[in-house]
């Protein structure tokens, strides 16, 4: 009898506990996620479950097809499915989404209250510093992605050729660059008896523009106003130089089809195949060596190792050459990464309690290094662990970024400290190669109202005209007509709008 | 026998060989038979009833078209609206012709339209007869195995996407390392930058398009060719016709129904362009001849999520295609009876 | 074939020689990219890809191994086959059923109904309205039939079939009617046996279309296990690439990329099955079937 009573009691207690846990689970809010996954997550993924349990919420991933992002997300929106947290791939899209009424307003105070860590990370000293970029008509609509390290692309010279031709270091001024390039073209550095080497392809041209101070694709500050690089008088000088070079055979005549001929986009076939002496295709993480087993990227390095080891060994890394007025530059990232912002679905605006909870969860996820690593790699000891020798977190047990994506990672926000901690060797390498020197970045960080109407046409006009001038199909003076045309076709409008915005920034 | 009488002899011969069952001849002479179309004065409903077994065969199709084609057509109104996801199709505000105005106001619109027609026109001119000719040539091959192998190989390019093909062609046509230019140089000529020069770009588009689609395009013609009564050929040979005579007076006319309808569709398709092909092969150097309607509007419509605009462009293209098809159809009907209507 | 009776004139022979030669050249021209892809797909990973090779120095099957080891390839294959078989069968049946009445001059409202179907070739709602209709009005979201039903009739192909029927001799139908058969029986017993070439053509077109389709699969299914092969393969290629808009994002900086060789291998895996279908279909392209049913 006693036995029976004990059993019954235990049973009742068990039931009670189950009820309680069920209640606790029922209280779990659901957070729907529309973010970029490298592979489709499975609904019952191990990591997803783990994250749900850890943060006591129901994460629900709405997969958006990576290769057809816009179509995929549009159909979801059309159906009425709006994620709680959404990857907005481009600041202009942010404007579009806000216009469509898809995003909730995120007042900075609300963010500060519920996500203090994120707030400090993304807002820093100046109260509304980074959030200015996601602020439209005085209201903030998301969290931008602040870029920590500002590097331009690699500037890689064929060191073996330079040495052979009598140069002992990478050119630092435009004059030196010209000298080196002419030597490469005229003096057969690869020693095969044929004059088949060119100086640069399309990527090498950027430095030339920069040497005069303005890059054709950027909006830059000139005496306190924003101006568009392509229509500055200095650009005409750059074009004159480039046209001259083309005529003298310095520029690869096939530059329009690009240095890359298919395959991984950052690899320069022209460079690897001894066709040109300088390339600026690829970022630091493409060119860096493999630092430790499991170190990712390094695509260009690995390919060069297989295809042209002599070239690899003798690469001279340069800095953007300085022009006659001492200016130089190549494009680097802007203050924020305009291509990746995070927005919150409009439904959260009507549910401040849940919105608060969402922010709190993501704050917790991002506020410590280990939490963050967990959110992108999974369970420690199962999917990742700290490497014994280097101390870096790395994927283990045969996992890679795709496999953990499939298991349902729920990524937090990466702050610069983490990036550095995770990727120290490569970032140090980039600084060592002086990739932070001479960076010019786009000062215009918001989409302009008229951009949709004019931008494509203006870009097309610019590309077409510049290509023709360089190739000699048009005289350099055609540039003046181009400038007038550019302003006439909408450029004036864009410049005015840009400066309207620029004036509102507290500098 | 004089050769110029050949066609007439063949036609007479065909007519004499077609055997019509005697009963039908008798019955039709008697007047009221089922093989005659009904007199027009009969009411609509009674006609439907009369031919109900035929109509029933068609009913599932009607259902299909209503559910899957006509139902979504209400969405065409997006072209006249500023489509907002949250308001839905019905709730989004009307903007009249604004989307169309945006399209026509784009600076290079006319240039782009011209390019579209030029490229499609050239593809039609050279690309339409190509599969027909190839089909005829294939038809002349006697060795079945050889024929089958050739056919299978000729289909292969159809299956490869332009993303892949463009990489291959860029290398192939390269002025420095491409085989064609190596050949030209060996012959003492100057290398031609096919993909980078305006004079050549269109030709490249047309030729690569033919290369990719000619094999697959022969299928329908080969199917039609097998439907030709071999007795015609037998008899023609007995009477001394050459292969050329056969091709011209038996084969081609027999293909008339298929060719007609394919041609009508092809003409209607002139406003279309092969986005994938052009997008993957073009560059700034050839924008002025290579930029077409779809490449030009793709960023605006799709990337910027302006579905009203995208819808307006589609509608514009479709109206033009429709007009073209109706006109071509009328012309075709004058020539033979195999038009769409 | 009808060439049993050819008098071997010199002109005829010459033509044959040139014809065969031309075909050989054609084959060489057309086979090059497939050959190139095949070689690329067999290239071992220690071979640099920026150098061009006709035949790679090191050959290996590792690319195929990597593609096939993807968890979803099996599902993708099964889903694709299922959809292709069912879809082709239904599509062909439906198209024949629709083309036949339209081919008869006495079909009531023939002009109207022809216009009815042709109209849909030009005017359609577009991606979003179609999606909304299929998923919300018709409730097909996530159902296998969403891969089959919306594309059931390809009007273009159906009209070609119609024209083919129109080219058949009228006596064929009449002889059936004399015997008192209804339209359906005429279609099944008389018209179809003689239409094997066009049926084979429709089947081929339909099968290829189904085999290559992936967009609908992407829109209507979220479970990766329900996707078709083409989508799985597309994802393999995309999973291994980061030339997306997100350049510079920290997460992308950590992902490793699939080389070109994998892309080539996925293309081969996608293409080979369907290319092999043609030889089997070929035997339906047989001559002279019309004659048989007219005699007597």
Topology, element by element:
The complex is a heterotrimer of chains A (507), B (341) and C (296).
Chain A (H helix, E strand, L loop, with lengths): L1 H25 L3 E5 L11 H10 L2 E4 L7 H11 L5 E4 L2 H9 L8 H7 L1 H8 L11 E2 L2 E2 L1 E2 L12 E2 L1 H6 L9 H13 L11 E3 L4 H7 L7 E4 L2 E4 L4 H15 L21 H4 L3 E4 L4 H4 L11 H9 L1 H5 L2 E2 L12 E2 L9 E4 L7 H16 L1 H9 L6 E3 L6 E3 L5 H6 L9 H17 L6 E2 L10 H21 L6 H27 L3
Parallel strand pairs in A: 1-2, 1-3, 8-11, 13-17
Antiparallel strand pairs in A: 3-14, 4-5, 6-14, 7-11, 7-12, 9-10, 15-16
Helix pairs in contact in A: 5-6, 9-10, 10-19, 15-16, 19-20
Chain B lengths: L5 H12 L4 H9 L13 H7 L1 H19 L17 H4 L6 H8 L3 H19 L1 H11 L4 H16 L2 H11 L6 H8 L11 H29 L3 H9 L4 H26 L6 H7 L5 H4 L2 H11 L3 H29 L6
Helix pairs in contact in B: 1-13, 6-18, 7-12, 8-12, 9-12, 10-15, 12-14, 14-18, 17-18
Chain C lengths: L9 H32 L20 H7 L4 H31 L6 H13 L4 H11 L17 H12 L3 H9 L4 H12 L1 H17 L2 H6 L8 H11 L20 H16 L1 H6 L6 H6 L2
Helix pairs in contact in C: 1-12, 2-12, 3-6, 3-9, 3-11, 6-9, 7-8, 11-12
Describe, in short, the structure shown:
Chain A is α/β, with parallel strands linked by helices and 507 residues long.
Account of the 3D structure:
The complex is a heterotrimer of chains A (507), B (341) and C (296). Chain A has 507 residues and is of the alpha/beta class. Chain A is built from 20 helices and 17 strands. Chain A has helices at residues 2-26, 46-55, 69-79, 91-99, 108-114, 116-123, 159-164, 174-186, 205-211, 233-247, 269-272, 284-287, 299-307, 309-313, 352-367, 369-377, 401-406, 416-432, 451-471, 478-504; strands at residues 30-34, 58-61, 85-88, 135-136, 139-140, 142-143, 156-157, 198-200, 219-222, 225-228, 276-279, 316-317, 330-331, 341-344, 384-386, 393-395, 439-440. In chain A, the strands form six sheets. Chain A has a five-stranded mixed β-sheet with strand order 2-1-3-14-6. In chain A, strands 8-11-7-12 form a four-stranded mixed β-sheet. In chain A, strands 4-5 form a two-stranded antiparallel sheet. The mean pLDDT of chain A is 87. Chain B is mostly helical and 341 residues long. Chain B has one domain: MetI-like fold, CATH 1.10.3720.10. Chain B contains 18 helices and no strands. With 296 residues, chain C is mainly alpha-helical. Chain C folds into two domains: 2-66, no CATH class; 67-294, Orthogonal Bundle (MetI-like fold). The longest helix of chain C has 32 residues, at 10-41. The interface between B and C is large, with 104 and 108 residues.
